[in-house]
Amino acid sequence: MGKSKQTGNHKGDKKKNIAKKWKTKRRTKDLDQIHSDMKPETAAKLLRQDVDYDVTGCAQHYCLHCARYFVDMRSLKEHFKTKVHKKRLKQLREEPYTQAEAERAAGMGSYIAPKIVEVKTQPVEENMD
Questions:
Q1: Is the full-model pTM beyond 0.90?
Q2: Which of 41, 38, 83 has its CA nearest to residue 63?
Q3: pLDDT tens for the chain, residues 1 to 129
Q4: What are phi and psi of 29, to 5 degrees?
Q5: What CATH topology corresponds to 25-104?
Q6: 54 and 65 in contact (C-beta within 8 Å)?
Q7: Domain ranges of the chain
Q8: What whole-number distance in Å separates Cα of residue 34 and Cα of residue 67?
């Protein structure tokens, strides 16, 4: 399809590139950030957040692996069955890329294959509904 050539939005001298906004509109967390969120202490904080009316579902229904908020428990459970969620779980099975691995790839050590991390869908609490 190609990059958008459209700039600005009828403001005259303020020329903003709209293509940049489109690229970053649906940006989600990277896999290494999600791996750090999956640590038990951070995961507990994310799954038990205080009520926040500015976030979808008042921040009560959160998918840890996809870094998404949902309106209610039913939509969260349906999300667990989708192809998008299952694909994300598969991506998270590989250990995150580290500086040590980058140095080994550059020839500063012997290659060690990335480890497989077991990732399961988060447990769902029925009483949150």
A1: no
A2: 38
A3: 566 666 655 655 455 667 777 777 778 888 999 999 999 999 999 999 999 999 888 989 999 999 999 999 999 999 999 999 999 999 999 988 888 888 888 888 787 878 888 888 888 876 644
A4: -65, 150
A5: Double Stranded RNA Binding Domain (3.30.160)
A6: no
A7: 25-104
A8: 7
